[in-house]
Design brief:
alpha/beta; 7-stranded mixed beta sheet; 5-stranded mixed beta barrel; globular; binds adenosine-5'-diphosphate
């Protein structure tokens, strides 16, 4: 193919397969476990479910790159995804076309590849091709007759297909060939080549099966006996059916008893037994038999009545919550109130709890503690990225590979009808043409309806009214409104450094030491070491990375001890680089000196608050404003407004030159890869531009947030608590904020409030006065702002 077209190829996620080759028009189930492949699958789900798969040359290679897979693979569509557990996903891939892997895509969390689809060669009738396909079909029949395991319906399709190219693919896909053999079939350029290749493989299969049958004959007597028995049983069944005697008495496998034992509601049992009779009447080779059996086994396993003895003992719950978690006083209070009300009301009905806050705040682990405190089991499903209603409500049984939805799967796994059921990341549920998962969730969470929850796979209603649902979310506003109405929201603000220190000392360190086979005698962390980890190796509202870094230290120490090295029993701050590598956040975000044109803004993200530096500079031009740093539309407009405000008051601020006729202004927000949006950087941008035009440096110990209007009024913004905590984390001392937001400061922990100065403002002029160093005190010559990163 010419280079030109290869340059335009679309980049797709690449999933290397250890020992499977996927053929076009064939659907294959695969189990995905490797981190990179899971990431690639996620990416595929975001991009129209398309991905490229290619077989590995060496199936034992754990972290293959593009060079380790065959250069010819298959474009697939992900038809279905089922999470088996936290680390395993079962995916149904449907082959669409052969593709040549042209060149690696962008580096990232998973492999990507620019792949070029290969057309199917035009069908040319030739005597040789006809003879070959005749011979392949004959060999295939022979292989099947000799016992190769090919499903009956597949066999029918293969025997009836008229296109020899497709027939070749189907035969190769359904036989147990070596990966290299299958790959050769996939790579064939012509029909003749493909059929010759298959014919060769089939001959080898025939030989293998002949050998196998010889071995069987040798050990045959035993087997013969068994086969006779099976045969006689089948006959017996047929005779019984003839006599109409099929019934409870002949239930050999215990399934019927198991169904009855579950004490499911009478109407449900009636339906289940009807299906059971249908199963018994089915010939054993029917492909439907396995599906129906799996369905009935699920019915027999589900906890229709099985429940743990749940109790609510409020003082005991308080003790457990306190033992498991440091701080979070308000949150614990709310949880205990919730439990107390439930106890008085006498049942679990009512709104469900929803924990909202950044990652690593202990939302999941509090869920576990609630389960412990109320004597229930704990089960968690992640709803992140779910767009298909069937994920919640299951597929109808007529659908190939149908499964129940996640709620029923979860209850089946929890083996009790009253667990604490955590719905993680409920804010990341979306809707599209595959239906709206929210509707199904609403039904599950609604106390009026959920005693009759209907799952498409189950077909019979299941009672969810005893389940204690707890949802978690990072962003309250992203939770669908209808769902939010049913929830009692409990917000988790970020932790302060002091709180993190306590959490680490009381909880994280003892836990990681134990997990790594260590104890406090062998390894201790000095408080200043923990503080150094918090400051120099993490920047987060929660403690997830802190936990990870502490675990990394323990792991390394454990390894050194195991290798017989001497390890200092007390980890000092100076030892940290040896364990964790160079410091990651040293002074990254704030300036060392007061600088012209560089301002500390404050941003709010899902992971808590963050410092957002804004830089402004000027160059010869005609008053244009250039904005860079991946800014969203709202932020761009607010920057325009800030700029217009500055232009309108420039003379008053002492800018003598008509700068809009002489310069272009460039405002940049570093960390350009991260998208940023919202109006609250207005005052920050205006201050950066004024500082740059007047040459007055900005105080480096100051951060600010607020929306600005064209007339310079400062308007209220959101996320004050998180922003203040971020400023505190970054070591800043003053925060300029809209006067109307002063009320939000009550949410900021007392310890932080004491250490910071808050400057409430109504007008932009007040911001400038508080943020800019007075002109008289300017010692250095005004210069164009420069970020330390540039
Ligand atoms: P989230 O669900 O909010 O993302 P996790 O529950 O996964 O957070 O918490 C991450 C880790 O931090 C867990 O090991 C948890 O036990 C611990 N943790 C978080 N907050 C606290 C706390 N206040 N006290 C004790 N441990 C905590």
């Amino acid at each position: 193919m010419p280079k030109k077209s290869s340059a335009k190829l679309r980049e797709l996620p690449l999933i290397p397969l250890r020992d499977t080759v996927v053929f076009p028009r064939v659907t294959v189930p695969v189990i995905v476990k490797r981190e990179k492949s899971l990431k690639a699958l996620e990416a595929a789900m975001r991009h129209g479910r398309a991905a490229v798969v290619a077989a590995q040359r060496d199936p034992d290679r754990d972290d293959p790159g593009l060079a380790d897979v065959y250069p010819l693979g298959t474009l697939v569509r992900v038809r279905e995804l089922v999470k088996q557990d936290d680390k395993t996903v079962r995916a149904l891939l449907e082959g669409e076309a052969r593709v040549r892997l042209r060149r690696p895509g962008k580096e990232g969390s998973h492999l990507t590849v620019a792949a070029e689809p290969l057309p199917v060669p035009p069908a040319k009738k030739s005597d040789r091709a006809e003879a070959l396909s005749y011979s392949v079909l004959n060999q295939f029949r022979r292989v099947v007759n000799m016992g190769a395991n090919v499903p009956f319906d597949v066999l029918l399709v293969i025997l009836n297909v008229t296109d020899p190219w497709l027939m070749g693919d189907l035969v190769a896909a359904n036989l147990e060939l070596k990966t290299a053999e299958k790959q050769a079939v996939l790579e064939a350029r012509t029909v003749e080549e493909k059929l010759t290749q298959i014919s060769r493989s089939l001959s080898r299969q025939v030989k293998l099966l002949q050998m196998a049958s010889k071995i069987q004959a040798d050990t045959g007597r035993e087997l013969d006996k068994m086969q006779r028995e099976i045969f006689l049983r089948e006959q017996l069944k047929a005779i019984e059916k003839e006599l109409g005697q099929l019934g409870a008495k002949t239930d050999g496998d215990g399934l019927r008893e198991a169904l009855v034992r579950t004490k499911m509601p009478p109407e449900t049992l009636e339906k289940a037994l009807k299906e059971y009779e249908r199963l018994r009447a089915m010939p054993s080779y029917s492909p439907e038999q396995a599906h129906l059996r799996a369905y009935l086994e699920l019915l027999a396993e589900l906890p229709w009545r099985k429940a743990d003895e749940a109790k609510i003992d409020v003082p005991e719950a308080r003790r457990i919550l306190d033992a498991d978690h440091y701080g979070l006083e308000k949150v614990k209070e709310r949880i205990l109130e919730f439990l107390a009300v439930r106890k008085l009301v006498g049942r679990m009905r009512g709104p469900i709890l929803c924990f909202v806050g950044p990652p690593g705040m202990g939302k999941t682990s509090l869920g576990r503690s609630i389960a412990r405190a109320t004597g229930r089991k704990f089960w968690r499903v992640s709803l992140g990225g779910i767009r298909d209603e069937a994920e919640i409500r299951g597929h109808r049984r007529t659908y190939v590979g149908a499964l129940p939805g996640r709620l029923i799967q979860g209850l089946n796994a929890a083996k009790t009808r009253n667990p604490v059921f955590m719905l993680d990341e409920i804010d990341k549920v979306g809707a599209d043409h595959r239906g709206d998962p929210t509707a199904a969730l609403l039904e599950a969470l609604d106390p009026e309806q959920n005693s009759q929850f209907s799952d498409h796979y189950l077909e019979v209603p299941f009672d969810l009214s005893d389940v204690m649902f707890v949802a978690t979310a990072n962003v309250l506003d992203d939770i669908p409104h209808a769902l939010r109405d049913r929830m009692e929201v409990i917000e988790f603000p970020g932790y302060t450094e002091e709180e993190k220190l306590h959490i680490a000392e009381d909880h994280l360190i003892p836990k990681t030491l134990k997990d790594n086979g260590l104890d406090a005698k062998r390894l201790k962390f000095a408080p200043e070491t923990v503080r150094a980890v918090i400051r120099l190796y993490t920047r987060e509202a929660g403690v997830r990375n802190l936990e990870r870094e502490l675990a990394a230290v323990c792991r390394k120490a454990a390894r050194r001890l195991a290798e017989g090295e001497k390890v200092q029993a007390v980890v000092a701050p100076a030892d940290l680089p040896g364990y964790l590598g160079p410091e990651r956040f040293l002074d990254q975000e704030t300036e060392v000196t007061d600088t012209v044109g560089v301002v500390n803004g404050l941003a709010w993200t899902e992971a808590g608050g963050d410092i957002l530096q804004v830089e402004a500079t000027k160059m010869a031009g005609r008053g244009n404003l250039q904005l860079t740093g991946h800014l969203g539309k709202v932020m761009q407009e607010s920057a325009q407004a800030a700029y217009s405000y500055v232009r309108s008051v420039a003379a008053r601020l002492g800018v003598k030159e008509p700068f809009h006729k002489m310069y272009d202004v460039h405002v940049h927000v570093p960390q350009g890869a991260i998208p940023k949006d919202g109006p609250s950087a207005g005052v920050t941008i205006a201050t950066a531009v004024v500082s740059m035009l007047t040459g007055r440096p900005v105080r480096r110990d100051t951060a600010m947030t607020g929306e600005v209007t064209l007339r310079g009024r400062v308007l209220e913004i959101g996320g004050v608590k998180e922003k203040v905590l971020a400023a505190h984390r970054a070591g800043l001392k003053r925060v300029i904020m809209p006067a109307r937001n002063a009320k939000d400061l009550v949410d900021v922990p007392e310890a932080v409030r004491r250490e910071m100065e808050f400057i409430p403002v109504k007008q932009m002029s007040e911001v400038l006065e508080a943020a800019l160093v007075a002109p008289a005190s300017v010692r250095q010559s005004p210069k164009t702002a420069k970020s330390k990163k540039c």
